Amino acid sequence: MNIFEALRKDHEKQRLLLKILAETSGDTAARREYYQELKLQLEGHALAEERHFYAHLLEKDATIDLTRHGIAEHHEIDELLAKLDDTEMSSPAWLRHLKNLQDKVEHHLADEEHEFFQVAGRVLNDKQKTTLADDYVNEMGQEMSTATATA
């Protein structure tokens, strides 16, 4: 598996969780559970992606601007998650904030998959793509294990 396949796999999980959450209502156990899973996925993904993908691309002229843009979008996503955390799940505002998060995440994923990955694919060699994927997957596994253990 290369880094792009690993990232796309997690992107699909994020899209699915957002879709499921957007169809929930009220302060229910299901909504809380899906939201916790989404939050863990987004936070773990951002951390692992920044450490094992973005960090290597900050060193390349061709990808520095795209990498900075991606990191900025991760911060915007973090702010939207904080807004959701501070809003009652039973409030109509919670669903509005979730829709804003969904729009931001889907925009971010599309940027990565349709532009960033193509440029990054030209500056990374095959060995780097595989090594970065291994490191990313291991980090995601650790993040999910740690989060599950503390939950």
Number of helices, where a helix is a run of at least 4 consecutive DSSP H or I residues: 5
Shape: globular
- Class inferred from helices and paired strands: mainly alpha
Are there runs of 5+ residues with pLDDT below 50, and where? none
The number of distinct β-strands equals: 0
Summarize the model shown:
The protein is mainly alpha-helical and 151 residues long. It is 85% helix and 0% strand. It contains 5 helices and no strands.
Protein architecture, described:
This protein is an all-alpha fold. The protein has five helices and no strands. It has helices at 3-22, 29-57, 64-85, 92-123, 126-150.
Helices, strands, pairings?
Blueprint: H1 3-22, H2 29-57, H3 64-85, H4 92-123, H5 126-150
What characteristics describe this protein?
5 helices, 151 residues, mainly alpha
